[in-house]
Amino acid sequence: MVQEISCGGDEMDRRDFLRQVAKWTAGTLLASPIFNITPELLAAERPFPRVAIGTGNEITTLVERVLAPLGGMKTFVNPGNRVVVKPNIGWDRSPEQAADTHPEVVKAVVALALAAGAKEVLVFDNTCNEERRCYHQSGIKPALAGMKNVRCDYIDKRKFVPVDISKGKSIHNWLFYRDALEADCYINVPIAKHHSLARLTIGLKNIMGVIGGHRGEIHQNIGQNLADLNTVIRPALTIVDATRILLRNGPQGGSLRDVKVLNTILASADIVAADAVATTLFGLNPTDIPATRAAAAMGLGEMNLARIEQIRV
Amino acid sequence: MKYRPTTRTFRKLSQLLFLILFFVLFRKTDYSGSDTLPYAVNLFFRWDPLVAATVTLAARKVILLLLPSLFVILLTVVMGRVFCGWVCPMGTLLDLLDKGIHPPGNPSVRLRKMKYLVLIVLLVSSLFSLQLIGFLDPFSLLVRGAAFSIDPMFNWLTTGFFDTIYSHAPAFADRVTEPVYSVLKNGLLPFRQSFYFLSTLSLMILIAIGAMEKLGKRFWCRNLCPLGALLALFSRWSFFRRIPTASCRNCPQCAPNCRMNAFDPDNGKLHHEECNLCMDCVDDCLNQSPRFAFTRRNNHVPVDLGRRAFVGSALAGMALPVAAKVGAISRVPHPLLLRPPGVKNETDFLSLCVRCGECMKACIENALQPCFFESGYQGMFSPRLVPRLGYCEFNCTLCGQVCPTGAIPKLLLPAKQKAIIGIAVFDVNRCLPYANGIPCMVCEEHCPTSKKAILFRDKTVMNRKGEELVVKQPYVVEELCIGCGICENKCPLPGASAIRVLTASKGTSGYSDGYG
Q: Most buried of A15, A202, B138, B317, CB within 10 angstroms?
């Protein structure tokens, strides 16, 4: 199997790419910028569908182990990069209640990114409950306290900018968080859990935390809408926290009866493949999940388990 | 003569320190990263004897939270109205205001007794369980004015300035302004912009109190403040007094300049209960050098309210509660009048609540809002939950923690999570899965009870195009709903929510079976 993860362009030449980036940057300087991300720019990245799965009690080493088959963190983070680590901090719940990404997973990913030479790591989420409560109760802000070059700031509403979703089938414009758009390397660190409408919320749904606007409207055609949003921000890496998963009463749970401890973490450069494999932890098929289906249909990744290379570590 | 700081200097220092304390506590009345507040942010209400007196009378029980008020009474019994002159932040702000307003000297002393009449009305009506202190307690007025208008206005202007630079000025300007902004955000500014009903009214009350200074120094304190009146009563026995007990004949110094106008205009005698020990007369004396000392000397000048005024105000204090009782509002409560978590009985709540605004300041979702006429004039400024503005955060117990009188009970988290505020009811004429056959589950997703109080039924419906399809239709499980209002808050419909929290269930404060 050839490593195709890091190398990008097959269709687009460098000049075209630079022109896109220049336009894109010019957009950020306007008072109310419109980001225009064309399909060509998006088609540039179609990562190899390889998913690493690991089980273990020691979270820090487990994260490192599952990244090894993908080439380690240095495959994704280059020295001097501004890295965004995007966990799910959506709910005012404690770590064992399995509504937010485990703080130790977040901390391990951040530490690896720094070790790989990241200049700065930003950790944030547009929360559903009150943000200070979520950041603290999830354990994520306390876990990152004192780490150098790490910012775990609350969402700054001024940083939401409208983005044209040219590839979108259902939504064509939405507010995105500037720090997420401008990241050199975007690492998606969702938790896998039940969701009453989307069936499950894993990697693709985690994008809800970097968008603004009336997020409730997304739910009216949730599968396609999530796929559309995911054409704008393509994580370099998706690390699924399944150390414990929420089986019922998602997405916020609240009762330990609904939590199952799996001590498992998955990682992939292919967000759709990561979601597809994580789906099997719940005894479901990837095709059961509307967002996974829609994203695969748009070419954002591979959901066919037979075509996904699964590596157990 | 060698330099010595004047006595006044100590008084000013004390005023400044207590003013700072007031604002620090105000700022700390907020979530701090831990579930329990580490400070007694409601200190000013807990040592307020007027709060203690009216609440004890109205609720007919001793509230331990208010024990610090005994300390203020003791202080007054020993030292006189030193609280008014050295501590009260309202008085300090008025003193500061005087530097710009220049009040006229020698104002009338005729209005002095008004504050006693006000106090009598408040005390008598609280004896009959009508709590009106919120209209006149200086700290209630101050905290509400600060919380509902001044602080949000300050934040609005400051963030507006920095936001404008952030979004319109060139990037190099940001490099200067953003660090300043983040320093401000970490200390001086509130965490977020909040919005309150009655913001203008709350500000106007403070402006009115300030404007009265144009009629004379400390007009509010001398003539209207019921706390000042109460402390004046206790100061009758105090033995820390000015010597001599009268102003000197023919001397134009202390009597005309006294900020409390405490000297009798006829005989120059000091009305001791009016003196707030500001020490101006000590420092400014031209000849005899008065001093304050512990003395047994009695210079008591009787306060003559007049029998008619006394009886009249007592009767008014009795009439008001009865008038409120026969108001229809007690029979048909407002269907949207949601009280904070743990409040069970509307009447008890209103007799305990002193409208201090602490709960509304502390509410992290900006959900608690002051009432206008929803519970009659007697409920004005009392807190109610307005879910479309903000919901009751499931894991938060701050309002009960900051309430100085226990009107909102201080509940532990498990009890608070079971406290019923109201009950959510769907408007199926608007709710998307019912009205339009469009899937939506935002209310269910946010419902915080661990066994969700909103569930789905699969239903075959026709959408607007006439196509048949199966949608999940949400419904409320009444036994599980606590009325936190997050569903109403997050409903994605524009304008009114398709799910609303009503006071329709037994066990909520607004419930009444007295009609129909």
A: A202
In chain B, residues with a C-beta closer than 8 Å to the C-beta of A249 are 450-452
Instruction: Give the span between the Cα atoms of B224 and B106, in whole angstroms.
Output: 17
In this prediction the ipTM stands at 0.90
* C-alpha triplet A125, A130, A135: angle, nearest 5°: 50
* C-beta of residue B329 within 8 angstroms of C-beta of residue B510: no
Per-residue pLDDT, B5: 78
Q: Where are the domains of chain B?
A: 7-136+214-294, 142-204, 330-502
Mutation choice for A interface testing from B174, B388, B431, B450 by most A CBs within 10 A: B450
C-alpha–C-alpha distance, residues B162 and B166, integer Å = 6
The pLDDT value given to residue B506: 58
- Least Cα distance to A165 among A36, A263, A259 occurs for A36
Number of domains in chain A: 1
Question: How much is the average pLDDT of B101-126?
Answer: 91
- Please check the confidence at residue A6 and state whether its pLDDT lies above 50: no
Q: What is the CA radius of gyration of chain B?
A: 27
Q: Which of chain A's residues have a Cβ under 8 Å away from the Cβ of B497?
A: none
Contact B358, B370 (CB under 8 A): no
For residue A295, being part of any structural domain is answered with yes
The end-to-end CA distance of chain B, in Å, is: 83
- B167 vs A258: CB contact, 8 Å cut-off? no
Q: Do A219 and B445 touch (CB under 8 A)?
A: yes
Query: Counting every residue, how long is chain A?
Result: 313
CATH code: domain of residue A185: 3.40.50.11440
Residue of A nearest to B487 (CA): A216
**Spatial separation of the C-alpha atoms in residues A240 and B239, rounded to whole Å:** 74
Question: Residue A138 falls within a domain, yes or no?
Answer: yes
pTM: 0.90
User: Token digits for B450?
Assistant: 């661990």
Q: Residue A187 sits in which domain range?
A: 48-312
Residues in chain B: 516
B114 φ, ψ to 5°? -55, -40
In a domain? residue A251: yes
Q: How far apart are CA B491 and CA B509, in angstroms?
A: 25
